[in-house]
Amino acid sequence: MIIYARIDGDRVLCSAYSHELPRYGVKVGLTNYSAAYCTGLLCARRVLKQLGLDGLYAGAEKVDGQEYHVESVDGEKSAFRCHLDIGLARTTSGANIFGALKGAVDGGLDIPYSPSRFPGYNQASKEYNAEVHRARILGHHVAEYMKLLQEESETDYQRQFSGYIRHGITADKIEAMYLSAHAAIRADPSHITKEQKEVQPKRFNRRKLSSKQRKERVRQKKTHYLSQLKKEIAAAE
């Protein structure tokens, strides 16, 4: 989400969610790092289109994992600047939230950051390997695990990656799937509003009776009781 503050409360300017990714061809693995990158990219392109800045700031169209910082165009509107709010999320190196950050930056947003928490950054040598990060963005880690598990246990592979198998996604197709999704997001990042369905509410308790209905119910019970009483008296005589 991209949120700005007002005196009377925060306002959501734009939002994007990973459950929108099947529309762009990513139907599985919606909680991994690669999906987080796609979601960040979608949010960036959507807000820039909303503000009319998508033509000026295309971002990093080639996924190479390199550091990218958008620069404002002279004589035009400045690049849209925002800041990452981690909230209660853990700042573990390689966490999905940094995948969303990288996707938003590559999407053309001006967000101050350093690569120290990205996959591929060596804390000891203070060096950043962009190729390692690129591999994570394109799901190479998932593809490698798929191949490894398939070799070790076909049963475990079919259980763990049943969704991938159902959609015909093999280890060799994962990178192409994400690259295709990136292109599709850039082509049309707009939000599609779902049609509101008319839902018939289900009642699991009896509807309350009106005053007239209650009185009629009492009258019927009295009549029934009196008729039963007359029958008992007649039988006794």
From TrEMBL:
CDD domains: Ribosomal_L18_L5e. One of its GO terms (cellular component) is cytosolic large ribosomal subunit. Pfam families: Ribosomal_L18_c (PF14204), Ribosomal_L5e (PF17144). Keywords: Cytoplasm, Ribonucleoprotein, Ribosomal protein, RNA-binding, rRNA-binding. Residues 189-201 have a biased composition (Basic and acidic residues). Residues 203-224 have a biased composition (Basic residues). It is found in: Cytoplasm. Residues 174-226 form the Large ribosomal subunit protein uL18 C-terminal eukaryotes domain. GO terms for molecular function: 5S rRNA binding; structural constituent of ribosome. InterPro entries: Rbsml_uL18_euk_arch, Ribosomal_L18, Ribosomal_uL18_C_euk. Residues 189-224 are annotated as: Disordered. One of its GO terms (biological process) is translation. Belongs to the universal ribosomal protein uL18 family. This is Ribosomal_L18_c domain-containing protein. It comes from Schistosoma curassoni.
